[in-house]
Predict the structure of Orotidine 5'-phosphate decarboxylase.
Amino acid sequence: MARLPVVISLDPPKDKGWDWALGIAEEMKDLVVAFKVGWPLLLEGKEKLGTLREMAPVVLDLKLADISFTMINIIRRLEFDAVIAHAFVGREKALRELREELNKQDKELYLVVAMSHKGADELLNRMWRENVLIAYELADGIVAPATRPELLVKIRKVWPRKVLSPGVGVQGARPCSAVKLGADAEIIGRTVTRNPSPREYLLRLYSGCKA
Amino acid sequence: MARLPVVISLDPPKDKGWDWALGIAEEMKDLVVAFKVGWPLLLEGKEKLGTLREMAPVVLDLKLADISFTMINIIRRLEFDAVIAHAFVGREKALRELREELNKQDKELYLVVAMSHKGADELLNRMWRENVLIAYELADGIVAPATRPELLVKIRKVWPRKVLSPGVGVQGARPCSAVKLGADAEIIGRTVTRNPSPREYLLRLYSGCKA
């Protein structure tokens, strides 16, 4: 069976950690293209990243937005396949050096060019063109929101590589809506991971959805 | 003795962690206004934050730049006195809800309005006015770079609350230069923490420097 165009976000509830995450992952590993791990789970330890990578590729959603020295200091402590950073921090002494480090490690870089929440429209999403230009030079893929379908279409027209799209489910976009507009995969978290039957629910939400 | 207008950044070298950080902190705790802890140290565990807070206030430099759900999910797992986030992610469903959570916990929020590295001039530092306006509504203090003295002066003229200034030392700005331009404290890391006699070196760098 082909995998669903879905990246499962493994952000645990406040009182949960890696046991919760690995349980969900075990249930989904044959269905999805990757697992997304963020800071909440990493704060419960980084030792299980290798175990998770054996199930599916791991995208670290660190939303890195710092100087190169610090970003590199962070990623050298972690196991992963791809990492998400913010395009807006710019190239020199930031993303360019991060890219060089990722090249050495043979890992992927995704850059956030726009976000899914309402406040993103104040500043960040107004800069999407500049962010895409930075991504052109440095990124394997971008992150662009399912909650802004018109923006997603504009971005897809000018961006030839991978697009991951968050904002599906709790945040308001419908499952498969971003994939239909050209995203390679949708990032989905709470909607599925808090469901009592996550595997069945995911299969139902994405039945007939193709990237 | 009055404390120096300095926040010490406890980002450890790749092969070091909390033993290194607590050793530096023990040596400096009577001299500085706070310690800054970032993701590299947190990836070595979060259990020692309480121990560090007994020495001096702890500013978590997480450069948060995510939706409110995730930012709150992160900070609820940590002990701290103040946290640094990025202004550019905007208010609704992001910084506004983060502020509300910090109010409940009686903790401070610092927002990055401009950064110290060269790439910051591409996008982020062009938005400093908009970032300051967001900070007006939501922040106890801001983070603005010592490496851009002209910008720092402009920001200080329109920003009445606290200013923390990174970029001193390795990144190029001279110790005390930002304090002289109105910053409340300078953030300094590697220059001091990698020195063989960090306490003596810090005292020498900041002799005669007053906020």
